[in-house]
Write the structure tokens for this entry.
Amino acid sequence: MTSHPRDRYWLEQALLLSGRCTVPRIYCVGCVIVDQEGAQIAQGYTGELAYPDGSSGSSPHAEEIALSRMPATTEGATLYSTLEPCSERLSGLECCSSRIISHGIARVVFGVREPFDSRLQIHCRGEDQLREAGIAVVQLFELEERCLAAIKRGDT
Ligand SMILES: [Zn+2]
């Protein structure tokens, strides 16, 4: 899959959003959803919202928040996330890859693959799951280092 000239701009917007994350010890991720005309329709970042019941210390992921704000009728949208969408959550909550698939997103652009976390023992398969569902997936390597630094800014 090839990248589009405007991909860099939108992923930079997601990076900016991730900078608003102030929660320690989580990946600080930013997400923007753009419709097929190239207009932004939703956004979100980790730490922006909390589950009402506090769900065992987990908080909604950036993609999850952005998807919840997306108009239901949207077709052909592109989702930009600084981090590869997750494929498994220890909390048992629905992973972002399957949320992306069920929301009918056509294309996903991300900055960095999810690093393997030896504490969690999760090998992220987000990119593969999305592709298997027929979604076009692009990693924008030119922003990989900046996205990696940004997701880890919550590490203490
Ligand atoms: Zn996720």
In short: Helices lie at 7-18, 62-68, 96-102, 126-132, 144-151. The chain has one domain: 7-154. The pocket of zinc ion is lined by residues 61, 63, 85-86, 95-96 (CB under 6 Å).
